[in-house]
Amino acid sequence: MSDGHGPTPETPPGWAVEQPPPYGAPQASPWTAPGSPPHTGPGHGPGPVPAPQGPPQQWQQPGWGHLPPPALRPGIIPLRPLGLGDILDGTIKLIRSNPKAVLGLSAVAALLAAVPVAIGNVFLLDATATAMADPTSDPDDLPGGFLAQFGGPLVSLAVGFVVVTMLTGVLTRILGRAVFGGGMTAGEAWRLTRRRVPALFAVVGLQAAILLAPLLVVGLLVWALVASGSSVSPGGAVAGFFLVMLLYVGYVLFFRTRFAFAAPAVVLEGRGPLAAMRRSWTLVSGGFWRVLGILLLTSLLVGLIASILQLPFTIVGTVLGMLGQGGVGTLVLAGVLTAVGGTLGAMITYPFEAGVAGLLYADRRMRSEAFDLVLQTAAIEQQRQGWVHSSADDLWHPSNSAGS
Asked: Which residue range forms the structural domain that includes residue 303?
């Protein structure tokens, strides 16, 4: 029997024996592996459980007053409303606890999105080297033309739309199990997620339509002004452009925040596209500015880290491509370096942003629906059994919310 100061040999990783059950629940029985015979003897059967030996816990010491017991933490987060530190720490633990599944899937997605950009950069470097060697050349006749400048990024956006959508769904499924301390392979995550992929695509398509609608309206207005022959001063055009961009950025941030939890609602709650977007809108209500602030901070952090990782490869690749006088070998090497840099950067960006969004979703449910009570009750039962059953995935259904 533990003295309350450390894990026993039977305690699985991730659980601390000094954490008592929350909310005055009866003390959980010791962990046993599935199929093991029940323990016998004092404290291991029906009847009262002897009080633990050793010094009293901190929240019971004289002079400290009555302090609540520490939150149960079976997995990557404590089962209570989360602070910023809990969310960032939980995301790191998600990656570390499932490195093969999380980083492996992220690497594949990042590579698929980075290759088109690398190919486009190869054409662009070839055109730049040609222009440097012959300043009199016509830019319209340079190899690649329009594709040299815009083809790679456009194709990368299309590929990224596909792979990132699937990756977000798969990582959300892994996160849903990791909250309880359970692991999941990439194959199992994909098997549990693949039926939700069409709904995920529909969610992303609806969000893209909402975000692009103002640009379409502005484009039509500009075309109407040009067609009518109206003249606008250069100063007025510049001021109008910056005003429209400022309003559009606010518009994008508002709707991206409101729909931030649509993907988790599709994967973990089994909702359809429109229902998932309405669900996200409801969950964000009451915490909009906090959600927006954490999402922006996360984007800045991962963007900075990704840039630091990507910059050396981009610089070396660009220099080699420009100094190689358009040689095939140097251009291929430049493309490879660009792809490696982009993959490394995206491997950090994709899982971190998906993890933060998933944990923010869990936090909003705990704050607005008392979902932490559901998680704690399930965690205590899983601690008693000694393992995380796959039925834990069903707990995310909204019918299990204590506040519903």
From this structure: 84-393
